Amino acid sequence: MTQDQNPQTPRHRIVVLNGGMRVPSTTRMLADRLADATVAAVAEQGGEASVQVIDLRTHAHALADTMLTGFSSGELAEDLAAVAGADGLIAVSPTFSASYSGMFKTFVDVIEPGTLNGKPVLVGATGGSERHSLMLDHALRPLFSYLGADPVRTGVFAATADFGSGEGGAITERIARAGSELASRLAGRPSQARRPADAFGEQSVPVEEMLARVTRPAG
After folding, report:
1. Of 25, 31, 83, 180, which one has the greatest count of Cβ atoms within 10 A?
2. How many CB atoms lie within 10 A of CB 188?
3. What is the pLDDT of residue 92?
4. What is residue 10's predicted lDDT score, i.e. its pLDDT?
């Protein structure tokens, strides 16, 4: 431990689910701004936060395989373990047909039931115009509520025009408010991760090992 580390400082793990389909992606840009706002708010409240971003597009083939076989492995399994071990989530999806993307939904579908129970979630979305903003309350928020998660009050929708307005404006204020709400929610619940702060999913058991335990002869 370095001299400037305080063992009493609350430490939180935040996982960002980025549903952006392209590189570069406005969805990733919004996700990064939400993460930065949350980390800053946690620091203002006397805590520390680490952030892991999961780009869902990188798991396209693995997600299809998991849906067919019922088992995840490799990097997808590691990222699912990171979600399970996170103290809070930031979930951002592009708007497709007035809802979240199919890729985003597929990732959520392979999360083990009960994993998100009580976990605070900040939801965000992107779209071509503000008329898509209802997607937050009609699709994303109900999805995470159904899964037992605890969405914070403020969601953030960013239209294409918002990315050309600089760092000011109403969306910047909304991002800051949402980040502050998630930070407050994190401060109000015990950390799920009492392991070292740089060990996302360190104690997760590989699928191969779990299968070996099941098939291993007794005695």
Report:
1. 31
2. 8
3. 98
4. 81
- Residue 4 domain flag: no
Query: Residues 41, 43, 46, 52: is their CA dihedral positive or negative?
Result: positive
Question: What Å distances lie between residue 58 and 27, 121, 145, 207, CA to CA?
Answer: 15, 22, 26, 20
**CB atoms closer than 10 angstroms to residue 167:** 8
On whether residue 83 sits in a domain, the answer given is yes
Please give the DSSP secondary-structure letter assigned to residue 128. S
54 token code pair: 């999961």
* Beta carbons within 10 angstroms of residue 21's beta carbon: 18
Domain count for the chain:
1
- Which residue range forms the structural domain that includes residue 206? 11-189+196-215
- Report if residue 6 sits inside a domain: no
CA dihedral 80, 82, 86, 91 (to 10 degrees): -60
Q: What is the pLDDT of residues 117-167, one digit of tens each?
A: 999 999 999 998 787 888 999 999 999 999 999 999 999 999 988 877 556
- Tell me the pTM: 0.81
